[in-house]
Amino acid sequence: MYKAKLEDGKITVDEDPEEVFQLGGYGRLEEDKLSLEPVEAMSLLQREKIEILKNGEKLTEEEFYREACSISEGFHEKLLVYQDMRRRGFVVRPGHSFPCDLRVYERGTSFDKDGKKLSHVKWLVDVVRTDSEFSLADKINNLEAAENIRSNLALGIVDEEGDVTYYEVDEEKKLNGDVSKGLEGTEQAKGFLEGNTVTVWENPENVYEPNYFGKRRKERVELNLMEALFLMQRDKLEVETTEGKVSKEELEETAREKDIEFEDKYKIYEDLREKGFLVKCGFKFGTHFRVYDRGVELKKGQKSPDEHTKWVLHAVPSDESWSYPELSRFVRLALNIRSKPTLGVVDKSKKYYRIRRIKP
């Protein structure tokens, strides 16, 4: 059995360090010794590959656990995710200089004698508890770091029972494209505003086809305020009330008064509609929008896979924070209807990120 020593919060192996490293990519080789992170040392201790000494005294598993908790913040959760990934056959290493808790390599990854990886990192993993917050800005920064090394960003979420659920965060590249489709085929129409609805009675097909604005109800089409404003700003719709004509500015002000999230939602709606996607209300799925691919025709009855809602999308500012139970519900609802759970991030530009559950 190899010997490691705990001194000043650092765990090192001085004898046969390369042999310990080659047990599975454990630690970092530094000159003539091996430095271990607490999760690595605990795993080797539990496998009875090393014993850990402090001041010359051998530590029990419980004693080292207590020491590790004082050395490494969130040690308990990191250990659960680290060991879970190891049990699944992945090679796992601490984040070190990377903006993550753990680096996960494909099964079978090996390292040369200098500790250099012989394959790319599969995931940069953030370890979190369900009672912490999902900070979108932080995750976007970490995602960019992952993409720079051709890796993916994953979340290892530890619940109150110590079970681990994994989510992957990635750009939704199709929505992030810069294709502008315009409003081919949509003709000008007139509508009447009452409450949250603009109703088009005369030639309702002018707004409903071919871009499917509004809800068709036999002899009329009902537009929500977002749809109506979008059409007004492109001179495709005139709106009036019993008091007279409504300007674009007045309609927008009305919409803002009725919906505190309107500004962020509208920016995403406008961006996706300009790109030719079909965007409809997502309330029935607990989110802002349901989004269909370009060219989809709305119809009742049986649909092909391509005609179903492709994205369930929520519009959020870049500094948005969610609880992990909220995030879990959002992802679960989307998966229940075989759609992609997506966040539309409103900043100086609009970008889209998909969050999906994975089973490593």
Measured as a percent range, the helix fraction is 25-40%
Strand arrangement in the largest pleated sheet? 7-8-9-11-12-24-23-21-20-19
The helix/strand class is: alpha+beta
Residue windows where pLDDT falls under 50 for at least 5 positions: none
Radius of gyration: 27 Å
Provide the β-strand percentage band: 25-35%
Q: What is the CATH class name of the largest domain? A: Alpha Beta
CATH topology of the largest domain: Trna Endonuclease, Chain: A, domain 1
| Oligomer description | single chain
User: What is the typical, i.e. mean, pLDDT?
Assistant: 91
- The count of strands amounts to 24
Between the first and last Cα atoms, what is the distance in angstroms?
Answer: 31 Å
Tell me about the largest β-sheet. 10 strands, mixed
Supply the number of helical segments. Answer: 10
Gross morphology is: elongated
Overview of the molecule:
This protein has 360 residues and is of the alpha+beta class. The protein folds into two domains: 2-167, Trna Endonuclease, Chain: A, domain 1, CATH 3.40.1350.150; 182-267, 3-Layer(aba) Sandwich (MutS, DNA mismatch repair protein, domain I), CATH 3.40.1170.20. The chain is built from ten helices and 24 strands. It has helices spanning 17-21, 38-46, 61-71, 75-87, 136-148, 205-208, 225-233, 248-258, 262-274, 324-336; strands spanning 2-7, 10-13, 28-30, 33-36, 50-54, 57-58, 91-94, 102-105, 121-129, 133-135, 152-158, 164-171, 189-194, 197-200, 215-217, 220-224, 237-241, 244-246, 278-281, 289-292, 311-317, 321-323, 340-346, 350-358. The strands form four sheets. A ten-stranded mixed beta sheet has the order 7-8-9-11-12-24-23-21-20-19, sandwiched between helices. Helix 2 packs antiparallel against helix 3 (61-71), helix 2 (38-46) crosses helix 4 (75-87) and helix 7 (225-233) packs antiparallel against helix 8 (248-258). The chain is elongated and about 90 Å long. The two termini are 31 Å apart. The mean pLDDT is 91.
